[in-house]
Amino acid sequence: MFYLSPMDDVAEGKRLVAGRGLTCGVINDIMMIDWSRDQVKAEVKRIIEAGKAGGRFLFGTLVMPYEIPEDNIRAMLEAAYEYGSFDAP
Asked: Looking at the domain assignment, is residue 29 inside a domain?
């Protein structure tokens, strides 16, 4: 498993891993403290869309500080469910 930094380019990370393992794209937990719900959802969508092509991808978090508003955590989960489903073959 390869955990990318929130600062990494997810598509480039997947290209470098080249299917040799599971690639994990993570959201910037610290930024989630101040982001709006819409910003959180947009970032989740961006990460997942960059990573899920070809499978072997996991969306995740890092440390989830207590200061993250509950609404932002819910927005992250809603977006992960919405954008994170793989189409059945």
From this structure: yes
